[in-house]
Specification:
2 copies of one chain form a homodimer.
Chain A lengths: L10 E3 L5 H13 L4 E7 L2 H16 L3 E15 L2 E14 L1
Helix pairs in contact in A: 1-2
């Protein structure tokens, strides 16, 4: 799972894999004694980020609260030039 | 635009049309003297809802704040039975 948990220890970046891959990554973070996990996504993966947060809360870990949701616009460098893309950060916290 | 603005006057439901259709619906709501507009979406349309909110804030109306974002799981009746689907509500408010 190394490739989907970058930099910050308690952050899970949503990419192109199946939602359950990221659900497991979030659960693993909570089981490694993190009280708070941040789920980040950009573009079309934003819907998947919400699915992942909801699946973890409703099916895997009781007593999780959505403590913060932030939306933003990020600039991404592509061959064609700079592109603006929407982003989301969802923070789940153990009570 | 009647079909995309249902029930609540200040709510815009994101469906399968182009993002700019919904951007214009949100702008119209603010121009009809609403101080606050709620953008709602389910499933794959969630990413589009975030795009719409970000486009309105950055390109159309200055001084808008994201005052609330809520994620949830809704039950939808389909022919195959009951399905669970993620949903989002983004509230934009004029300062």
């Amino acid at each position: 799972m190394q490739e989907i948990i970058q930099k910050d220890n308690n952050t899970v970046f949503i990419g192109q894999k199946e939602p359950m891959t990221y659900v497991m990554a979030v659960v693993t973070q909570f089981n490694s004694s993190n009280n708070s996990v941040v789920i980040k996504a950009r573009g079309k993966a934003i819907s998947k980020a919400v699915d992942v947060a909801e699946i973890v809360r409703h099916r895997f870990i009781n007593g999780l609260t959505v403590t913060n949701i932030k939306i933003d616009t990020e600039e991404v460098q592509r061959e064609e030039g700079t592109m603006k893309i929407s982003a989301i950060e969802i923070t789940l916290t153990k009570e």
